[in-house]
């Protein structure tokens, strides 16, 4: 059984999609990051970095319980566990390269673009421009790579496509003010639509819907989400 520590944000969404695609048995454990539950000792024992997603596999390697944190690590772990969505063996170098491109580039710059456009104080125009333009540059790199391709790696749907889907699903927030945020990146838009049409996506979107996550953006939420912005308690 997989215990899946979840909050409805892009990186957990990737893991939700892969779990639904593989049909592995799992239970969802809500972690309300707006309430600071990611900082509780019980969760820090699973992910010392205090971020979602994370999983605990009660039937890990050798039959031992295994924890895995970071969305890319979880995607790789579950794909290897099931032997699915890894593409052809000869494509493994490409798969790793694009997974880490998303993990170290497209994802973080998208997240910072959202942060500086929606959460940061006004007047930080340089940061807003820097992170949004870098997110768009990563979009363009992937868009160019997808010319003449259906999927990111090889000829089949892989965890690279799942990883990209998680953040492309939030393109409207990354490219704030754009009516059709992926219109300038037609190959990327096609990839997103291809993945988004899969039956497992609807099931992944339903994950956590039965839990009332906090939606109020108050002082508690800001301190929970951005603790490094505040001095440590005396």
UniProtKB/TrEMBL annotation:
Encoding gene per record: yfcG
Species: Aliidongia dinghuensis
Domain GST C-terminal: 88-216
PANTHER family according to UniProt: DISULFIDE-BOND OXIDOREDUCTASE YFCG (PTHR44051:SF19), GLUTATHIONE S-TRANSFERASE-RELATED (PTHR44051)
Name under which the protein is recorded: Glutathione S-transferase
Domain of life (superkingdom): Bacteria
GST N-terminal domain boundaries: 1-86
UniProt xrefs under Pfam families: GST_C_2, GST_N_2
Taxonomic placement: Bacteria, Pseudomonadati, Pseudomonadota, Alphaproteobacteria, Rhodospirillales
CDD domains reported for this sequence: GST_N_Ure2p_like (cd03048)
InterPro entries in alphabetical order: Glutathione-S-Trfase_C-like (IPR010987), Glutathione-S-Trfase_C_sf (IPR036282), Glutathione_S-Trfase (IPR040079), Glutathione_S-Trfase_N (IPR004045), Thioredoxin-like_sf (IPR036249)
